[in-house]
Amino acid sequence: MVDTTRLWNKDDLKRMGEILREDPTRGWDNTWYTHILTISAIEDLILRYRQQNVMPWDAGEVQRPLQDLVLSGTLDLPRLGRALVPGCGRGYDASFIASALGLDVLAMDISPTAIQAAKEHLARAPQALSGGTIVFEETDFFTYSVSDDEKFALAYDYTFFVAIPPSRRPEWGQQMSALIKPGGYLITLVFPLGLPLEGGPPFHVEPDDYVEPLGDGWEKVLDKIPEVSSEHHEGKDRLVVWLRV
Ligand SMILES: C[S@@+](CC[C@H](N)C(=O)[O-])C[C@H]1O[C@@H](n2cnc3c(N)ncnc32)[C@H](O)[C@@H]1O
């Protein structure tokens, strides 16, 4: 059971920033632990206890604007092919996409512990998944590549864009352009709006920040303030959907 009482808690966000500044890549995995007890200088023998639990992003549920978008039929989203969810965490949204749209989802995260937690979560609620399939994979989004016939019909970004250093946003856009096929959709659930310019993650974001990294070849097909937001999100999120032309 996820402790959502600490969702977007300031102290946890501060601690998360410290952990990630120590190690911007492996730090994501370390957010899941309480104590890191070194029993040997050899890195492989580091013993880690699973209690850190500094994951102030883990909502414990599917994001409501995503649910609303898919179930309302506002857009003619794909119902065949592959979907990509980078930085999937425990995978609530990824499983929803597989079930509700019937797509075969690749949900990736750089943290092996996040991937393990996502698999365990799905195993506890297998009835939650019907329709498409889902694979949780420990992968770095920035080094992932596919052949033309494996390209994705849909990608979904919620709190991944804001988790990566802003200097990597151009790479984020190049990857999305390389991975999503023409006619495919990119759903960006922009959150949290209104952060200071300095500090992060989550890093400061505006809905327009996605335009330049994506570059040419994308048409914005939806841009709205969600009618239904998840708890703690009111006034801080925006749903923007892009079509790869
Ligand atoms: C703020 S969390 C959001 C997780 C998830 N979207 C959710 O809402 O529960 C950001 C996630 O991105 C993952 N991440 C960071 N850099 C990554 C990378 N280069 N490739 C894949 N995942 C990455 C982290 O491990 C973390 O789980």
Biggest β-sheet description: 7 strands, mixed
Strand residue percentage: 15-25%
Q: Give the low-pLDDT segments.
A: none
Mean pLDDT: 89
From the spread of the alpha carbons, the general shape counts as globular
Organism: Leucogyrophana mollusca
Protein name: S-adenosyl-L-methionine-dependent methyltransferase
Keywords: Methyltransferase, Transferase
Notes on the structure:
The chain is α/β, with parallel strands linked by helices. The protein has two domains: 4-48, no CATH class; 64-244, Rossmann fold (3-Layer(aba) Sandwich), CATH 3.40.50. The chain is 26% helix and 22% strand. It has seven helices and nine strands; from the N terminus they run H-H-E-E-H-E-H-E-H-E-E-H-E-H-E-E. Strands 5-4-3-6-7-9-8 form a seven-stranded mixed sheet, sandwiched between helices. A two-stranded antiparallel ribbon has the order 1-2. Helix 3 packs parallel to helix 4 (92-101). The protein starts with 9 loop residues before the first helix and ends with a strand. The relative contact order is 0.14. The model has no long low-confidence stretch (mean pLDDT 89). Keywords: Methyltransferase, Transferase. This is S-adenosyl-L-methionine-dependent methyltransferase.
